[in-house]
Amino acid sequence: PLFCKAGEDVDLQLSSYGAQRIAPLQMCDTDYETEATRWFSEVVNSVSKSSAPVVAEPPTAAAAKKNGRQTYTGRVITNINLNDRGSLKQTHHIEIEAADVAYEPGDALGIVPQNSAALVEIILTLTGYDKDKLVLFRKEEVSAYTLLKKKASIVSLPERVVKKYASLVNQDIPDTKIGLADLLKIYPLVQPDDFEKVVDFLEPIVPRLYSISSSPEAHDGEVHLTVARNTFRVNEETKYGLCSDFMCGFPLDEVFDFYIHSNGGFRLPEDDQDVILIGPGTGIAPFRSFLAQREATGATGRSWLFFGDQQFATDFLYQTEIQNWHDTGVLTKVNTAFSRDQKNKVYVQHRIRNNAREFFEWIEKGAQVYVCGTRDPMSTDVEQTIVEVVQEQGMMGPEEAREYVQKLKDTERYVQDVY
After folding, report:
1. Which pLDDT belongs to residue 52?
2. C-alpha dihedral sign at 162, 167, 170, 174
3. Exposure string (b/e) for 3-34, b if CB count within 10 Å is 16 or more?
C-alpha cells in the first residue's frame, strides 16, 4: 500500500509549492531499467538547451562490472549448522570456493535464490498447467517450470499481488502474508490457462545480501557466510524464508552464481586504531571477517567484541575461534550475553552498561564503534545505551550526550550494518 510512497510524497510536496512537472512521476519496481532509462531521457531532453534530443544510454556490461556487479561462480565446500542440539535456532556456516573473488571485510555477498522443486510441483499440480509450456515473463520466454523455479517470487506475495489475484478469481481475499500455493488451494483458478494471467502480475525474485564472514587475507580463494534459517508460522504451519532455506540446504559441491556488494561505509580503520565490535546473533558475521583480517595483517590496535545469543551451550557461534583470538591477543576483550541462561534476559546493551567506564574510555581514546545485526530492537537499544553511558561517564546532559554520539556517526566512528 505504500509502494513508492516517498516518491509520491516528494512529488505532491513540490506541486503544493507551485513547482511544474517536466516529466510525470515514474514509479518503478525491481525490474526498473527500461522505465528508468526512458524517464531520464524525458527529463534530460526537457532541460537540455540543445536542439538535438539527448538519449540516455542503458548501462553497459563494463559499467556494471565497475559498479561491483561482476558475477562469480562458486562451489560449496562446507555447510555446517553452528548451533548445537537443543537450540531453537539453525545457523549455518557456509564456505564457498571461488577463484579471483575481489572483496573487502565489511562487504556482502548477493545471491538470487531459487524456489524449492517441491513447491513448484505443487503449484503446477494445482493449476494443471504444463510445466514445459512456454510463458512470457518480464519480456523473457521461459518454461512454466523455469519460471516458478528460478524467476518468479512465489513464497510470500506482497499485498499488491494478492489484490490482483483476488480480482482475477473474483474473490474477497483478506490482507495476509500468503504464498502462491496457498492462494491456489484456497481460491483456485477456474481454467488452467488463467495461470498465464497470474504470470502477468507475479514479481521477480530479488537478490538477497549476506554479510561476508571471511577475510581475503586469511581465506584466499574462499568466501564464507553465516546464514540463519528464517522460520515463521502462518496459519499454524511452519514456513521458511526463501533465501535462507535455499542456502542452508546447499549440498556439498553445489555450484551457484553470486556477486559482491561493496559496503564502503563499513570498513576497518587503520591497523593501529582500536575497534569496538557489537554483533549479536548473525551480526557476528562481518566481525569474524574483521578479526581474521586483523590477525592476518598483524594489526596493533585493540579489539573489543560484544556478542550475544540465546544460550551459551548451544548458540555461541564461532566460540573456539573467538576464544583463540582472545588467547592470542587479536581480541583484547570479549563480553558475551546469553539471554535465556538466567531468569532475567541479558542482552549486549546490558554488557555495555556493565562496562560503562571502560567503554567510554575506549571511545575517548579514538576507538571506532561498529554495530551489526537486527535494526529493531537491537541497534536502537544499543544506541540508546551508548547515549546513556556517554551522558553518565562524560557528565553531560541528555542533549549533549546525543550530540556526542551523533558526532561519532558524522565522523564515521560509529557505523552500523543493520537489517
Report:
1. 53
2. positive
3. eeeeeeeebeeeeeeeeeeeeeeeeeeeeeee
Longest dimension (CA), the chain: 75
- For residue 249 the three cell numbers come to 540446504
Minimal CA–CA distance to 289: which of 309, 264, 268, 269?
268
Residues in the chain predicted with pLDDT less than 70, given as ranges, are 1, 30-31, 49-68, 234
Distance from C-alpha of 361 to C-alpha of 333, rounded to nearest angstrom: 14
**Adjacent-strand bridge partners of 276:** 304, 369
Region label for 367, one of left (φ > 0), alpha (ψ between -120 and 50) or beta (otherwise): beta
CB-CB contact of 209 with 199 (8 Å): no
User: Distance between CA atoms of 288 and 267, rounded to whole angstroms?
Assistant: 13
Q: Give the per-residue pLDDT at 236.
A: 76
Handedness of CA 118, 122, 123, 124 (dihedral sign): positive
SS (H, E, C) the chain: CCCCHHHHHHHHHHHHCCCCCCCCCCCCCCCCHHHHHHHHHHHHHHHCCCCCCCCCCCCCHHHHHHCCCCEEEEEEEEEEECCCCCCCCCEEEEEEECCCCCCCCCCEEEECCCCCHHHHHHHHHHHCCCCCCEEEECCEEEEHHHHHHHHECCCCECHHHHHHHHHHHCCCCCCCCECHHHHHHHCCCCCHHHHHHHHHHCCECCCEEEEECCCCCCCCCEEEEEEECCEEEECCEEEECHHHHHHHCCCCCCEEEEEEECCCCCCCCCCCCCEEEECCHHHHHHHHHHHHHHHHHCCCCCEEEEEEECCHHHHCCCHHHHHHHHHHCCCCEEEEEECCCCCCCCCHHHHHHHCHHHHHHHHHCCCEEEEEECHHHHHHHHHHHHHHHHHHHCCCCHHHHHHHHHHHHHCCCEEEEEC
